[in-house]
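Preliminary data (for renewal application), NAP complex.
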Amino acid sequence: MEVKAYAAQNETAPLQPYIINRREPREHDVQIDILYCGICHSDLHTARGEWYGTMYPCVPGHEIVGRVVKVGSHVKKYAEGDIVGVGCMVDSCRECASCQEGLEQYCENGFVGTYNGQERDGSGYTLGGYSKQVVVDEAFVLKIRDTENLAGVAPLLCAGITTYSPLRHWGVKKGDKVGVVGLGGLGHMAVKLAASFGADVTMISHSPSKKQDAEKLGAHHFLLTKDANEVAAASGSFDFILDTVSADHDYNMYLGMLKRDGKMVCVGIPSTPGQVPAFSLIMQRKTLAGSLIGGIAETQEMLDYCAEHNITSDVEVIDIKDINEAYERMLKGDVRYRFVIDMNTL
Ligand code: NAP
Ligand code: ZN
Ligand code: ZN
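Predicted structure:
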């Protein structure tokens, strides 16, 4: 079926209206009318070909919230009218050890991304949520229990789970000294989540204008990386640092802020590789690690946790025609703290 969308035709073209084809729902598929779609910095990296292998036309968008309009004959979890979410994945092999453990994002045969992913049946590559409708296997569809503020829930599908998963995996708990680097879409969710787990949270930012907001979001302290005195004073002080920065930056400055046995986890994905000398890690037995989104079961757990604790994203809802301007503003760090597209405007 033909569906309205917005697509980038190549690395330098702005996103523009484009008609795509979606499959008719198969036995296990759910057809969803998209209500809101968040704008993740990964959408921009991909649309502009900043990583590798973007396929064009590219329709980004993996923070999808919508209403079920049709279900396949074997669908058990969802019915017409349900409010549901779709995050960064729409399929995986479901057989490998990672899939069996509910870690589909680490599928040994490669998960299928919501956009720019290869369909497992060979039918082509996937197109994301900057569109009116999407058709997804029910195994990769999430239940949305908090239906009060759907625009604020949409970013949980990527920014929420990408920060929740490492905080849980590395066991961040009450009293831990946690630093969150970068106050953007991911960073603001990390602050809210880490604070809700009882951690002592410091926002580590290069933008002096974000201090007040960081505190409103739940950060207990603010560290401005442009101030050499503040950086020096933070030396050896954190148990855990979550790095959400999208641009090239020096990891070593942040590693210097870890305590002995401290851990720094990268979720931000700059386009050029950083350099980390062994000395940055060995002197105080530090760990530098990475983490990718989260599995389907953990995404549901996070959505339910956020519903229970009244956690949503702080959003600026935009018309889809303003998408290119939103990208430029995101690059300037001028977003508080997630753009979300109202799909009624498409
Ligand atoms: P965003 O909203 O644009 O936020 C990025 C933040 O990085 C900015 O708000 C800014 O915070 C900081 N920053 C920007 N330029 C900087 C610089 N030159 N030096 C230091 N800090 C800088 O982006 P996002 O949507 O949160 O995404 C962040 C990154 O995570 C992207 O690379 C994205 O692709 C990646 N990502 C990864 C995963 C995963 O699974 N690992 C999932 C989703 C997204 P301050 O102004 O506070 O410094
Ligand atoms: Zn994302
Ligand atoms: Zn697998």
